[in-house]
């Protein structure tokens, strides 16, 4: 058991590539504001163009299901890897200020080392998640192509960029909780793609709402550290993060209420008939 743990610790925290990681704007792949802007603009433009203006031929389920399964499996494993790697980095490659450091980076913290490596992988994974939208479009499941879906996928990339660009405090906790939720979510999508329909679909939305509420509670600790102490790094990045999470919480709560209220109404109608 110790050998397995030591191997994990080496490959996810202490590997030279991870230990030596540094986010350098303009040098690290995907680190320039131009790359970020073009990525988000291309996503929004292509989503609108393909879903509204182009009439794509239907894709056979025999082709679509294996692609969906492979995509879901990839993001399931990647989310599990990121949650594990970031958690190990918090506990086994900390500065002397842990656990305060996990909540509040000291001012002017450089974006280097294992925590920022996993933030970078997380940032790139959000670009990979753009494929979610493409799969919805080619499957003709346009009822799933909601404002919430497109807004979330486009804006979360900006949020992750700011984690790195501002050395934003609190992102390790946000990364671990979000990646854990995505482990559950992509496990659900994977099972659906292979023909198994789990009964815990509602759990995915519930976990997302709990994640946002938890992030606001932990943010209170960060703000206390920021105003009562010497300050926390990346406070302006956190402000964007807080507004974004607040908007997502409102949208998810509205989606949750409408979806399950509709299901209850349908169930009652079936019983009465």
Number of helices: 11
How far is it from the N-terminal to the C-terminal residue, by CA? Answer: 58 Å
The number of domains: 1
Give the helix level as a range of percent.
over 70%
Average per-residue pLDDT, rounded, comes to 90
Give the structural class.
Answer: mainly alpha
Describe the global form: globular
Low-pLDDT sequence parts: 266-273
Number of strands: 0
Return Rg in Å.
Answer: 20 Å
Order of helices and strands: HHHHHHHHHHH
User: Strand-residue fraction?
Assistant: under 5%
Largest sheet: none
How would you describe this structure to a colleague?
Residues 266-273 have low confidence and may be disordered. The chain has 11 helices and no strands. The protein has 273 residues and is an all-alpha fold. It has one domain (59-260). The protein starts with a helix and ends with a helix. 75% of the residues lie in helices and 0% in strands. The longest helix has 38 residues, at 235-272. The radius of gyration is 20 Å and the shape is globular. Helix 10 packs antiparallel against helix 11 (235-272). 29% of the residues are buried.
Which descriptors would you attach to this protein?
single chain; 273 residues; mainly alpha; 11 helices; disordered C terminus
Summarize this entry quickly.
This protein has helices spanning 2-14, 16-19, 33-53, 61-92, 100-103, 114-128, 130-138, 147-165, 171-193, 201-228, 235-272. It has 273 residues and is an all-alpha fold. The radius of gyration is 20 Å and the shape is globular.
């Amino acid at each position: 058991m110790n050998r397995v743990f030591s191997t994990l610790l080496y490959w996810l925290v202490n590997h030279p590539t991870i230990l030596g990681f540094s986010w350098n704007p303009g040098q690290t792949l995907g680190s320039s504001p131009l790359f970020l802007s073009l990525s988000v603009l291309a996503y929004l433009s292509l989503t609108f163009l393909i879903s509204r203006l182009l009439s794509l031929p239907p894709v056979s389920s025999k082709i679509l299901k294996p692609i969906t399964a492979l995509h879901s499996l990839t993001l399931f494993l990647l989310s599990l890897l990121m949650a594990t790697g970031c958690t190990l980095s918090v506990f086994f490659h900390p500065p002397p200020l842990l656990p305060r450091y996990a909540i509040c980076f000291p001012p002017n913290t450089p974006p280097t080392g294992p925590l920022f490596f996993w933030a970078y992988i997380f940032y790139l994974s959000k670009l990979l998640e753009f494929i979610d939208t493409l799969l919805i479009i080619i499957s003709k499941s346009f009822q799933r192509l909601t404002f919430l879906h497109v807004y979330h996928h486009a804006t979360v990339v900006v949020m992750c960029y700011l984690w790195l660009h501002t050395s934003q405090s609190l992102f390790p906790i946000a990364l671990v909780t979000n990646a854990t939720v995505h482990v559950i979510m992509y496990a659900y999508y994977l099972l659906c793609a292979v023909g198994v329909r789990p009964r815990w679909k509602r759990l995915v939305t519930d976990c997302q709402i709990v994640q946002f509420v938890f992030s606001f509670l932990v943010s209170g600790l960060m703000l206390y550290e920021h105003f009562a102490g010497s300050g926390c790094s990346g406070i302006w990045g956190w402000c964007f993060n807080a507004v974004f999470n607040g908007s997502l919480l409102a949208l998810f709560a509205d989606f949750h209420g409408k979806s399950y209220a509709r299901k209850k109404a349908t169930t009652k109608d079936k019983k009465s008939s």
